[in-house]
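Hey, can you fold this?
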Amino acid sequence: MPPLAEFLATWTFDPIALIGVLIAGGWYSAGLLAVRRRGIRWPARRTLAFVFLGLGSYSWVTFGFLGAYSTDLRWAFTTRIALLLLVVPALMSLGRPLVLARVTMGSAGVDRLDRLLDSRLMRFTGNAVFEPLFSLVLFLGFLTPFAGIVRGSLSAQWGISLLIPIIGLMTILPIFENTKRHTSFFVMVEFVLAFAAFLFDSIPGILLRLSETVLDLVPTPVGALPIWFPGPLRDQQLSGDLLWFFAEVLDVPILIILIIRWNRIERREAKTLDDLSDEQMAALTREHLRGPQR
């Protein structure tokens, strides 16, 4: 592992990542200006979360040590992808970008946003089971020579900087924001399935750690290397250790979000029942006991 000073002081330039930061920051800033013009109070903690935690973590992952050594070190490559998929989108979501979009859009814009969130694609990616299964398939790719090809391609590395966080946002934002179309029973089933799927996320990391051969078939980089630079097999083992850790720990926020959503929906359903009159409750009970009509 590199010395802490080198880990913190190493930087690189990623033009695609810079474009992503400028677009995301510009869009959020435009939303803040629209909120201010309408006299709507927007909590400062959300802005700080989006800028410093969301965009800050994205910049650190893409421009820092992990981005600089992603082509040379397997553990930097896998860690960078895991953070861009699982951590950065979750931190961005703390800024509540969809809520900001709703309060700044007109009714037509909100309708378009709702249609997008209710589209088949977003319902598919926004299901809590999709993220761990997608992570499993993605991380299994680290066990193949394809990982070495992607790691050695600068254009592929730049594409990862933008594509992986977008996929992460497509999974986390619907889970974090959009709860109106689910019942508590649906969320309970989703939680159970997601928990089961999370158990399989550790498999790629375990296989990387235990393998005695270099799976991506990429030799040690040619040229003068730092004294701390690991050999190919040790690099792969470190990659497996870190991937195993991230797969187990960083999926926990999804489960926490599901628990929070489950609680919110149960409260909403309980309030709906409390608002019913005695006659409406009796009629609903009779309808339930009668069961579906054929």
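Oh, and this one too while you're at it.
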Amino acid sequence: MKWFVFCYWYEPDAPSDPVGLVRLWALARQLAGHGDSVTVFPPRYRSSLLQRGFSIVSIPLLPWSVLRPISYAVLSSVIGFVRACWSKPDVVYYRWMESPHPLFLARLFGAQCICEVNGEPVPPWGVSGLRSWMTHALAAFALRRCDRVVVLTSGLGSLVRSQYGVQADRVVVLPSGSDTEVFRPKEMSLCRQEEQLDPACQYIGFVGSFYRYQGLATLLEAFARIHARRPSTRLLMIGEGEQAAAFVEQATQRGLTSWITWAGRVEYTRVPTWIGAMDVCVAPFCGDRGETSPVKLFDYLACGRPVVASAIPSVNALFSRANGVVLVQPDQIDALAEAVLDLLARPDEAYRLGREGRVFVEQQFGWHAIVRALRDLVRPIIPHDPDRHRIMASK
């Protein structure tokens, strides 16, 4: 099969190289690994130019925030059309965006169209204003006409059906997962040696973007309590984001700077080494996080590490102590601190949770399984059937 993948993404704090396309890089690599032809049309970010294993057609963007998505929509439409004239796609797959041009391209060339909704949109549900109205109108137009809408959680599926009126039989839940060949258990001592960490300490770790909704303010306060009771503990903070400076300032004011490693953004292939150095991994999402796929939990567990995570709906739906995750109420400093302290005090239990989490991800949420499910989803209406698409588009 031939795939065209469109994936506009923009983070206000990091317009030169956002990190939000990791799932689509993994998806493209796995599809190519199954023998499919995959062409991805990402914005021209540094990370886009570093991808290997599939075709990349990077789209230049105008630098101004208002024109950035417009420039992507126009240029990717033109370039996609030219590429499709040369090599017609069987499937056009795109992550939800304000422009429905991937749908139009799919219909023009008789391809199946799949839209991925991986989180609540921005502006969020229910926000008033002209831009919000236009955004939702465009989304409703496109989503109702796509052959399938892939959502990463069942909660997102409910929102897509209720907000946009998408028929239930077109909504398919395909959760995020982890590349279990890249993210795998490693010897803790070797990981610490590689990252030049003190082997005598115990490490709590977070990997992700530094945004308010990640609950990092709660994590820092919890760490202050953990460190007061176990002075050998250290905190590893892997990532960056718009709230990074505020979190560093919070840590400084609490006198925690000497015990925290701010690693910044690290290369994708180095992330498993940092996770491997951790005794306990954390995902302290805020209670108002909304519907999203907790990608970091899959990677933590794939590396065989126990996890303490906030019990928000999208986490509750997939994880429990039975598969390696200790759930705590979100935004509760004491609950987070006590759960982490319990695992630090019981290394055998921590090891058991990490082992079971690895098995859980390997069996159900490895990328091989997810991509097989996606290919099985599109195979029934391949090859092209332009008449069918024209009928669906008129509905």
